[in-house]
Specification:
Blueprint (H helix, E strand, L loop, with lengths): L6 E4 L4 H4 L8 E6 L5 E5 L2 H13 L23 H14 L5 H8 L11 H18 L4 E6 L11 E11 L4 E7 L7 E6 L6 E3 L4 E2 L1 E4 L26 E6 L5 E8 L9 E6 L8 E5 L13 E6 L5 E9 L6 E6 L8 E5 L11 E5 L5 E8 L8 E6 L8 E6 L1
Antiparallel strand pairs: 1-5, 2-3, 4-5, 4-10, 5-6, 6-7, 7-8, 8-9, 11-14, 11-22, 12-13, 13-17, 13-21, 14-15, 15-18, 16-17, 17-21, 18-19, 20-21
Helix pairs in contact: 2-3
Length: 401
Amino acid sequence: MSEQVLARGAVAFDPATHGFAFPNAFVNEVLTLPNGAKITTAGRCGGMAYAALDYFLAGQPAPAWRADLWAPGRVPPDSHWLAQLFTQRLRDSFLTGSAAKFVTWSMHSDDETWVFKGVSRWTKEEELPRLMALIDRGRPAVLGLVVARGLGAIGDNHQVVAYGYEHDPASGRTTVRIHDSNTPRRPVTLTSDRDQGDWTASNGRRWRGFFVQDYTPRPPRVPTGHPPGVKDEVRTGDTVTLSHVWTGLTLHSDDQRYAQPGTDGAQLITCVPGSGDDARWLLVGADVPDGTDLRNGSVVRLRHVSTGRWLSSTAGVRSPLSRQQQVGASPSPDASADWRIEVVDDRPWTAGARVRLVHVATDAALHSHRAADPRLTAGRQEVTGYPGRDVNDWWTVLELG
């Protein structure tokens, strides 16, 4: 009597590295009615699954931004390039031939009929072997998980990344390892037994079945290949790249100057994608030596690494686009270059925290927003000093050295 061998396969996809550190808590506004009421849908699971697979296949970690950066919403706002990426990749996931199964499977029963196999047999006899073959060839797959039993509930279906499986012929039990954006950065399993038609997820849901989705990779945007640890402390003497929390772009300068009426000819400060020398800033303590811990209330100066100029602002000088207080880079580190750190919850400044940088002399917060004008800000996102306070004042550390 031949021994039955446990079948298993896995790909080196890691939810903690290639998944995102925030949950799929997006709310999509799809229509505004004449009375002002908004019609919304929940989640961008397909976009998050496709994007996670994009990063994996490119050999890059997913951006490490955490949910608390965008409290209380917990996800990047629609102004952030990452939220826009998920929207685009979600659309891509629905513009595939396989996506039609979300409709057809939701309309069919679990059990076999005289015409169709039904969802249970389709999953185990067709889709599971296809998934196992992909994983055996070293490729994870996006799965469409089906729970709906009619078109009215089709939005309850889901999309995940599958990266491993185990099948025990003796017991008939099959386990599929998945990355589920509803359970950030933790492994989840789908399990079904020989006599069980549906699949039980370890994070609590039961699914009627699943199918392998068509997927074409796209090169992902990689803001940095060297993300710091979220608990790494920031000190004077460190060099940082600062990311604007609400859009995901980085604080940048080069040798271009403001030339518009009302500006002072200072070196231009903007926000751009990515990192590099033009986005690196040396933190200099106003009255303390290098290596001093920075915390809520500390005052620092930021010296631009590639040009040697200092982040500064001056009352009464207006930015060319929004006409808020201009922020530039000046040649000397005087009082116009002093910035006070405001850390959420009055904590020390760590790389994973969100902070404000408040201009000491004018109490204007370092601020940015999506607007850009090629005539006024070299086509980049404007950076200003803002006298009030809002979500566009938040920054976080993208790189720390």
